[in-house]
Each structure stands twice: as structure tokens, then as C-alpha cells.
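Here is an idea for our session: we take a single protein and study its fold together. To get us started, please write out a protein record for me. Once you have written the record down, we can walk along the chain together.
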Amino acid sequence: MPFSRGKNPSSIKVPGKGSLGVMENQEGVHSKRSSPQGGVKKRSAFVDITNATKIQINNQTKIGKPAKKALKSKEAAKNEANLKEPKAVCSNGQSMKLEVGLSPEKDLVVWPQEETTLCPGRQVVPDEFDIDKEFYGDVSMSAEYAKEIFDYLREREEKFVLKDYMNSQPDLNKDMRGILVDWMVELQENFELNHETLYLAVKLTDHYLACSVIMRESLQLIGSTAMLIASKFEERTPPCIDDFLYICDDAYNREEIIAMEINILQALQFDINIPVPYRFLRRYAKCVSASMETLTLARYVCELSLLELQQVPERGSRLAAACLLLALITKGLGGWTAMLEYHTGYTVKELTPLVKTLRTMLACPTDDKLTAVTTKYSHKVFFEVACIPLVAVQTLEDALIEQQVS
């Protein structure tokens, strides 16, 4: 656990029942997560989570020996036919026949190289804009379809556009939301969760608040449950419910978290694959071969925007592009290139208002008491990017105008 059982992790109170704890900053030293109930139960793969064994027993009792032989021969013939004529399916549903051979050196299946380009309808990326060509052939990267994947994510953004929902919440205000998100940032750090988990959890929280009127007593319950759902979606080993009960200082019980999990999933119709700006940011940084320090500076701006209610309606792809542009100008590394415009779909003119808003956010935060993000990115692990001086307003405007002209 992130804390010893004897300590009370809560020092910031959320309005109402729960308490949002300010986690102890261990200066980059993270403790591994462990379940209060002990280690994970060992089991054989798929044995105790399927009914495969029961089906096999039932089939043995119901099917006689002659029927078994006939069924076996029929399946064998079908498998043999499939092996003789292997087929693959293109993205448009059209099947194509592949000629399979064996490598004389290693007795491995050899697939013809030209088959990777047989699928009609695949988007052809101009060679000068192809940032994935070095990974072609690496099945773990899906480089041949990377551009299509991110174009699809941009299309999905339209489904998840939100408006300022706080006027429909009579018992909440933007300050309460800011306190909750600040606590979720600390939660992500102490549980050593992926950054995607944090972004998705905040998105889930906003979408649920946009369609459900809730009382302030349930705010921390919603935030912790959203983090639980996001962890299940993003993490290999997500925290268990007991971890979230403990981190909420036992303000809620197991049944309340499970019930809230059901409510959130039903409200979102179980569609929780929401595109988050963090994914776009890493993709866009690759277009200019940005250093880790420059990328981390953009990540700092992007994560700080999670606290701002006015950024809730913003599309993740546009927010990521604006954060990267601000980071490039701050570091004096030039600006928007043709490569970035091709992969992001945004021009400097389209990003200029948002870049100026983000610079104002850095200079004058809405609530200077919410310091989780700033403290996090002031550490040397994150290159102390929160301590980098802000770019001057005139310098920023001159750079944006110059890039629009060019």
C-alpha cells in the first residue's frame, strides 16, 4: 500500500462525506502496490473462469462413439481445407488468398512481403511525412496502420464532446471539481498508474457529471470509482477495490463503489474508450523528434489543463497540439511544421487562441492551492519542467504571427 495503516492520509477535506488526502511526496521514490487481502490467487489459465470443462464432460456423455468419430473426421476435413487455402481479411472485409511457404532454414511460415499492401482502401502516407516507416514489419507497433488509427481516434472525439455542465449541478461548483482532479493526480502517482489512466478517469468523471445530477457527498466516490474503471481499462495490474476504500479513508464501502461503477458504465453505455490528449501528444511529439524534456513540458501543460473546467469541452487532439506548440515556442525550438500540420490536421491559426489560453493558465492558475501537478513536474524525474520560465507574451505572439505568415 502507498501508506502505512497507522497513518491518516487525508488532510484536504472534500465538501461532504469523503476526504481527499494529500499524499506524501516521496521525492520520486514509489512503493509498490499490494492488496490488503494478500497476493493474487493463482490459477491455471482459463480453467476456473470458463465452462470449458463442463462442456467437454457433457459432450462426452451425450455423444456416442460413432457420432464422435463422424464429428472428428468432419472437423479434420474442414481444418485441412483451411490449411490448404489460407486467407486473410482486409480492412474493407474483402478476403484475399495467401500463398504460404516454409523457410528452409528455420521451418517457419513465410508470408509474402507484397501481401501487406494488398488491402485496397488503405491510406497511403507520403514518404516525406511517414514517421512510422522504420517500424514497418514490427507487429507490436502496427506501424502500417498508425495514421489510420489516429484518424479514427479523431473521428471518435466527436462522440465525446462535452459542454460546461456545472450549471446543471446545483450542489457542485468548479472549485470542488478542481480539488477532486488534484486528488486524482496524487492518486495516480502513489499507485504508480499510467498517465493514460489519469486522463481517462477525469474524462469518465466529467461525462458522468454531465449526465447525472449528484450531491457533493458523492464526488470523491465518483472520482475514485472512475479511477478504478480506468485502471481496469488501461493497467495490466489495476488496484483492487480495497485499495480505493483505504485511500478514501473508509468514507465509503465496497457496495457503494460497485454500485457507482454500475451507474457510471450504464450512463456511458459501456463505451469508455474515450480518446485522451496524452495519446495524441506522444504521437505529435514524434513528428518533430522532440526530446523527452520538450515532451514532458508539453505533458505538464496538458496535465495542468485537467484542473480547468473551461478545458472540458476541448477536443483532446487539439489540446495536445496546442500544448506541444507552446512547449516548442517556450524552448525556442521553432514551431509548427508541415509534418505536424499533416498529422494533427490543425494549422497555427486554428491553435493560436488555445495556445494563448494555456499560457494564461500557466501564469495565473484558477486556484493556486491546487499544487499536485506543479509539485509533480517540479521533480528532477520530470526534468523540473514546472520551473522553466514562461515565454514572454510578446515573444509568444510574435512567434505565432510569424508562423502563420510562413
Summary: The radius of gyration is 26 Å. The chain is about 50% helix and 5% strand.
